[in-house]
Amino acid sequence: MKKIIILFLVLMFSSISISQSDAASVLRELQNKYNSISDLSVDYMQKADGKVVLSGKIFFKKENKYRIENKNQIIGSDGVSAWNYNTSKKKYVITNYDGESNSIYSINYLVYQLPNECLLSTRSEGNSVVLELKPKTANLDFKKIDLWINSEKLIVKIVLSDLNNNSSEISLNNYRLNQKISDSLFSFNPPEGTKIIDLR
Question: Is pLDDT above 90 for 13?
Answer without folding.
Answer: no
